[in-house]
Automatic annotation (TrEMBL):
It comes from the Bacteria. Transmembrane segments: none annotated. InterPro entries: PA_dom_sf, PA_domain. This is PA domain-containing protein. Residues 302-390 form the PA domain. Keywords: Glycoprotein, Signal.
């Protein structure tokens, strides 16, 4: 059997099963003097990280995370990771935290589980027992035999790059509202080791005409087809088919009942009867969780006085808005300030719960990120389309009554983040999200999973049952 390799365009896979020994991860620092891992800026030790310079603390986190993966994986071939800090896309309100990809991918190597199928180099090496890139001509990139290339945003937390929300470099998870670099790096190395497809979801094109190992396990619940059975146009539709694309691997399927909670959160319109239906929601990482008992209340919109239309709730609510939302579910708009600020302002005004209307056409809606231990009411995000429909239904409201009632509760017929057969959803928002769609678990999973598209505050460093499904999915594809 001949082997073939190619440079992938996006991130890829992770994890171990069946090799003779634990894995060894070798980190190559590619930063220049005084930059990134070599930054000499003095800092105080934090959260179990004893480093006394910014660069040293960054390196300590990287080594800490690599050690976690080493204990989880098995491979006789060293896994080589090129690591660096670079300016990545960001603004004052959003930022790319980092990215990772397999530097080489291979098909038809000795022992490949599936013929004519792409595997990331770290996994191909593990399966074959040899370094696939050894002896290959230099590609001129400077990365040589690197298995995984990673980069993280060196500007994060600066005024023009998600101001004030830098990486937390402690090892204890007590982030204080900052972004947990341990969880972020665990996630990105997962992609580099292979938690992804190499197929282009926005065009449906297979890489060089061949599917990824990932694609063999993707099933669309509408068409009944796996991605390996679809045309390119069918894959494009499937990649934006919200909560319809599932993972069919046996290892993951067996562990779903141990990891995911029974009950899928939803917001059900109960009155008026002409509007009765269930709305898809994205739950909040903060505040109390939505329960099976449910919370029912009338819905009232927050209306900011500035334009008389939107309800951003970024400032303490006016007397009129307090009167409207007290004892009710407050409907607020996404934008300008954090989700926690909006929910806290509604809580202080006496609201029983909050629904945040998305300002993008995402469907299904992602969750609400953030952390605030003083928030005591539940909240969730609904889609822009559903939000506009609710507002339209409340046009004839009075100052304190709308006649629109919603119950926030759980559908106990399925696990949170899985279909009725217990197969976890993949992330397939509409519109397509480059770099995120298909290659993550869906945001409806609860408890939150490491390989969702967003880093949540409740993540642990445990990569398998009963906390997480990452390890089990990677076993499905060959680790």
């Amino acid at each position: 059997m001949s082997k073939h390799f190619i440079k992938p365009l996006a991130a890829s896979l992770l994890l171990a099963f069946g090799a003779a020994q634990a894995a060894t991860i070798q980190i190559q620092n590619r930063d220049a003097v005084g930059v990134g891992f070599n930054d000499p800026t003095p800092v105080a030790p934090v959260g179990g990280n004893p480093g006394t310079t910014l660069g040293e603390q960054r390196w300590n986190v990287y080594r800490y995370v690599a050690d976690i993966w080493e204990k989880q994986l098995t491979s006789d071939v060293v896994i080589t990771v090129s690591a660096g800090w670079e300016p990545l896309t960001c603004s004052a309100s959003s930022a790319v935290l980092g990215s990772a990809s397999a530097w080489n991918i291979w098909r038809d190597f000795a022992g490949a589980p599936k013929a004519n199928t792409w595997y990331p180099q770290a996994l191909a090496n593990k399966i074959s027992g040899v370094n696939q890139s050894e002896g290959q001509p230099d590609d001129g990139s400077g990365y040589g035999n690197v298995d995984i290339k990673t980069q993280f945003n060196i500007n994060l937390g600066k005024p023009d790059c998600l101001a004030g929300s830098g990486f937390y470099l402690g090892l204890d998870g007590n982030t204080g509202g900052q972004i947990n670099f341990v969880a972020t790096l665990l996630h990105e190395l997962g992609h580099g080791l292979g938690f992804a497809t190499f197929t282009r979801g926005n065009t449906g094109a297979l890489l060089a005409g061949y599917p990824s190992a990932w694609d063999h396990f993707l099933l669309d619940n509408v068409t009944g087809k796996k991605w390996t059975q679809m045309t390119a146009s069918e894959r494009v539709t499937s990649a934006t088919n919200g909560r319809r694309l599932v993972w069919t691997g046996a290892e993951v399927g067996a562990k779903v009942p141990e990891v995911l909670a029974l009950g899928t959160p939803s917001a059900k319109i109960t009155a008026p009867s002409s509007l009765t239906r269930a709305l898809a929601i994205g739950t909040a990482a903060f505040g109390p969780q939505i329960t099976a008992t449910g919370l029912s209340a009338e819905v009232m919109p927050v209306v900011d006085q500035a334009d008389g239309v939107t309800g951003l709730a970024c400032d303490p609510l006016s007397a009129a808005n307090k009167l409207a939302v007290a004892g009710k579910i407050a409907l607020v708009d996404r934008g300008v300030c954090s989700f926690t600020v909006k929910v806290k302002n509604a809580q202080l005004a006496g609201a029983k719960a909050v629904l945040v209307v998305d300002n993008a056409n995402d469907n299904p809606p992602p969750g609400l990120g953030g952390a605030d231990n003083t928030i005591t009411i539940p909240s969730a995000r609904i889609s822009k389309v559903d939000g506009l429909a609710l507002k339209d239904a409340m046009k004839a409201r009075t100052r304190t009554r709308s006649g629109l009632y919603i119950t926030l509760g759980l559908d106990m017929s399925q696990y949170a983040g899985a279909d009725l057969m217990g197969r976890p959803y993949l992330y397939t928002p509409n519109p397509f999200a480059s770099g995120s769609s298909v290659s993550h678990y869906d945001t409806s999973a609860f408890p939150n999973q490491l390989m969702e598209p967003f880093i949540n505050a409740d993540l642990t460093t445990i990569l398998q049952s009963p906390k997480d499904l990452t390890f089990h999915l990677l076993r499905d594809i060959g680790w």
